[in-house]
Amino acid sequence: MSRTQPTPAMYQRNALAPSLLAAAVLFVAPALLESDWFLTVRFVATIFAIIIGWFAFQAKHWWWMPVMLAIAVVWNPIFPFEFSGPIWSAAQVAAAFVFLGAGATIKTPRDV
After folding, report:
1. In 3D, which of 46, 50, 37 has the Cα closest to residue 77?
2. Is residue 14 part of a domain?
3. Residue 11 covered by a domain
4. Residues near 25 by Cβ (< 8 Å), separated by ≥ 6?
5. Tens-digit pLDDT profile for residues 1-41
6. Structurally, how many domains does the chain consist of?
7. Could you give phi then psi for residue 85, rounded to 5 degrees?
């Protein structure tokens, strides 16, 4: 009986893990809006947006770069925008879905 080797994947999704982590934090973010923990949410969203933007650049998925740059600017903790209310709360969830979309679509060919 011979064993067949599994076919290696043709693509790798480098942005998937960071996008899942960022989305998880942003899904919880509406509950943290009025607490001190929201500063951590801002750091996580900004750092992962920059990382995923870099992976988009490497994968030549240019259309994700301005989206990730916009998230990095809006959620930046250094010069924060003082947004509040239900629209800002909904923006947290919308950004989480954007991260999930980016993580699912950014892929690079694997060198086999």
Report:
1. 46
2. no
3. no
4. 40, 41, 44, 45
5. 667 888 877 889 999 999 999 999 999 999 988 889 999 99
6. 1
7. 90, -175
